[in-house]
Design goal:
The complex is a heterodimer.
Chain A lengths: L3 E4 L2 E4 L5 E7 L5 E8 L3 E10 L2 E4 L6 E3 L9 E3 L8 E8 L7 E3 L3 E5 L1
Chain B lengths: L3 E3 L4 E4 L4 E7 L6 E7 L6 E6 L4 E3 L2 E6 L4 E6 L8 E9 L5 E4 L3 E6 L1
Parallel strand pairs in B: 2-11
Antiparallel strand pairs in B: 1-3, 3-8, 4-5, 4-9, 6-7, 7-8, 9-10, 9-11
Classes of the chains: A mainly beta, B mainly beta.
């Protein structure tokens, strides 16, 4: 299906484990973003990417790693999960040549126990 | 200081009321501005773009004041279905697409 999809939708993991959240978009949008959303904080930008092999830190990058080997994929890895990383994670993409509207995946609800 | 700051809310209003949300941003090089709506921690969706000349879409009016680095959203004749969280969004950074969200303002419209 066309669009932007995240997987898994729900994940429970243990402290210290490595976890990778996947994001895939079918539009070939150049820009992709990862946000986390916690109560009272809105969406906070973790990392973003302007194109394949180009990534930049956002507001809260510590504890996260990203890669962008292909335009359509932008995985987010928690190298050693902590309880403070329990959150809802949203991936988004933008086509800067058009309206610059951000299109979001449905989110991944991650719980670290 | 956060890059994008919004009224904390929540706003509790009766149906038919007019309600205004405000937002300020700190990066004077910011290039584009939006309001998004989010329901029950589902994914945010674009409500409207914000232009310097102001723009209106039905009951919704958005304004941008670049000199004051201020964005507003006005909702007239509030409906129950307007109950949601409204997010102010600013694109800044090199190339203009570091997309930063405000914390959101929660709106409750009651019968």
């Amino acid at each position: 299906d066309a669009g932007i999809t995240q997987s898994p939708r729900y994940k429970i993991t243990e402290t210290g484990r490595q976890v990778t959240l996947m994001c895939h978009q079918t539009w070939s949008h150049s820009y992709m973003f990862w946000y986390r959303q916690d109560l009272g904080h809105g969406l906070r930008l973790i990392y973003y990417s302007a194109a394949a092999d180009i990534t930049d830190k956002g507001e809260v990058p510590d504890g996260y790693v990203v890669s962008r080997s292909k335009t359509e994929n932008f995985p987010l890895t928690l190298e050693s999960a902590t309880r403070s990383q329990t959150s809802v994670y949203f991936c988004a993409s933008i086509n800067p040549g058009a309206t610059t509207e951000a299109f979001f995946g449905q989110g991944t609800r991650l719980t670290v126990v | 200081r956060k890059e994008v700051e919004q009224d904390p809310g929540p706003f509790n209003v009766p149906e038919g009321a007019t309600v205004a949300f405000n937002c300020t941003y700190s990066n004077s090089a910011s290039q584009s501005f939006f309001w998004y709506r989010q329901d029950c921690r589902k994914e945010p969706k674009l409500l409207m773009s914000v232009y310097s000349s102001g723009n209106e879409d039905g009951r919704f009016t958005a304004q941008l004041n670049r000199a004051s680095q201020y964005i507003s959203l006005l909702i007239r004749d509030s409906k129950l279905s307007d109950s949601a969280t409204y997010l102010c969004v600013v694109n800044s950074g090199t190339g203009g697409f570091k997309t930063i969200f405000g914390a959101g303002t929660r709106l409750f419209v009651k019968a």
